[in-house]
Amino acid sequence: MFESLASCFTFRCSALLNTTMIAVTFALPAESSEFLRRLGNKSRADRNAISIVRGTIDHLSIEVIHTGVGENVCRQRIGKFLENQQVDFLISAGFAGSLNQELQVNDLFVAKNFSTVDLKHASLSNVSIYAANMLTAPAPIDSRDERERIARESGASAVDMETEFIARACAAHGIPLLALRVITDTPTQPFPAPSSVLFDIQQQRTHIAVLARFFITHPRRMPDLVQFARRISRARKTLSDALVSIVRSQVGTIDRNGPGRFG
User: Fold this and answer.
1) Which of 34, 65, 79, 233 has its CA 20 to 30 A from that of 240?
2) 3-state secondary structure string, 155-168?
3) Contact (CB, 8 A) for 244 and 180
4) Which residue ranges make up each domain of the chain?
């Protein structure tokens, strides 16, 4: 249903500036913390009321923003971030859920229906990445039956809540996009509690009191929460390692081709 990538990415984009700038988006800090730790020369700034973390990987400039979860906040933040800003390449990164058994927990994949970069077989050391279609859904999908139904009807192997809107914004600005996700939950390894307990989309936060109350009244679910936390930690590192490898794989190419040329 999806092809395996030996994975090097040929990125072709023209730049107007003399430096290359790569933007990386995550929905939440829980997804980005390990990657942010890997940045050099790190600083924070606000632009158009959007908080940005700036840094470098080798000599490449990186800007990271958190889009929030879901359409409304994501559209607003990505729109403000890209306004009057030259971005040579954008990576939409983060967690995703599997809709079937094709993708397992901790698998990395490129959402080929949203990515606009060229993918070519080459070597990206110690990184195994798949290519699959992904669906952007309006709400989290809790039930196994619902996941499998959506997989059959949509042809997608995974689901998130932001990438479609990031892809639209990149298309409007002519920015090459790579949608790279790591699987954190599947039909057989679902969320440890209803999604409304884990995260309040309207307020963009987890309510600790709500979370605690659920597990106090459902103590048999506590081991599931512990296992989920471990999966998240592992997925965060897997994603960060892949992002750093992908960026570093382009450094020599950029040196040869000049700023803004990925090949």
Assistant:
1) 79
2) CCCEEECCHHHHHH
3) no
4) 3-256
Cβ–Cβ under 8 Å, residues 60 and 251: yes
Q: b/e for 171-184, b at 16 or more Cβ within 10 A?
A: eeeebbbbbbbbbb
Cα 74 from Cα 80, distance rounded (Å): 10
pLDDT, the chain, mean: 86
Higher pLDDT, 190 or 263: 190
pTM score, whole prediction: 0.86
Q: How far is CA 227 from CA 143, 189, 190, 201, 256, in A?
A: 18, 10, 11, 23, 45
The 8-class DSSP code of residue 200 comes to B
CATH 3.40.50.1580 given to domain 3-256: yes
The burial class, CB within 10 Å (0-12 / 13-18 / 19+), for 216 is: exposed
Q: How far apart (Å, rounded) are the C-alpha atoms in residues 148 and 156?
A: 10
Element (H, E) at 24: strand 21-26
Specify the 3-state DSSP secondary structure of 83: coil
pLDDT higher than 90, residue 63: yes
CA distances 176 to 51, 65, 114, 161, 211, Å, are: 22, 17, 10, 20, 39
Closest CA to 28 of 247, 235, 176: 235
